[in-house]
Design goal:
about 180 residues, alpha+beta, 4 strands
Length: about 180
């Protein structure tokens, strides 16, 4: 079976249960934390795939990775982990978390905006850029992620979901080079 289809199905089921329990906002935060931990700790995925690590240890790791303690864990999230354990899918937690995040963003019109700049942007610049982006999108909510990449030389690159605006000096130099070569 398609490894992309399985996580989407689990994510959709979790989303539906979360909607019934009015818990999706909390689940969204948990899934973002979980995805962030997977990104920063690559060994977590390997540990979950290791057949010598018990399912209970894997569930404990996933609880802690989501920022929960076993005593105060979210009931919906705990039930979700139990379901993954029963079905032998604990190793798919990362993909399911990413699919849940994508589904939640789609349902709530949340746009993921990444901004790369050659140097750190001042608060006033960020504010002005965010107003322009909001005007372009027109509706919904934006989640911003700013990073610095000195290789851009100057300017910035803005990515909204799959749409990209490259206003960097590096890009302009590449365009000029191509134009001159043609």
């Amino acid at each position: 079976m398609d490894k992309g289809l399985i996580p989407r199905r689990y994510a959709k089921a979790l989303y539906e249960v979360g909607a019934e329990r009015q818990d999706n906002d909390r689940l969204y935060a948990l899934m973002q934390t979980l995805a962030s931990v997977f990104a920063s700790q690559p060994l977590l995925a390997k540990t979950l795939a290791n057949p010598f690590v018990s399912d209970d240890e894997k569930m404990s790791l996933l609880t802690k990775a989501a920022g929960e303690t076993e005593a105060t864990a979210d009931a919906t999230y705990s039930d979700f982990l139990k379901l993954l354990k029963e079905n032998g899918r604990l190793d798919m937690a990362r993909e399911i978390a990413l699919a849940f995040i994508s589904l939640y963003r789609s349902e709530h019109e949340i746009y993921r905006v990444t901004v790369q700049s050659a140097a750190p942007m001042a608060a006033a610049e960020r504010e002005r850029l965010e107003k322009v982006i909001a005007g372009h999108i027109g509706h919904g909510t934006m989640e911003y992620d700013y990073s610095v990449d000195p290789a851009l030389i100057g300017g910035f690159i803005v990515t909204v979901n799959s749409e990209r605006l490259d206003a960097s000096v590096r890009h302009q130099l590449e365009e000029m080079k191509l134009h001159l070569l043609n």
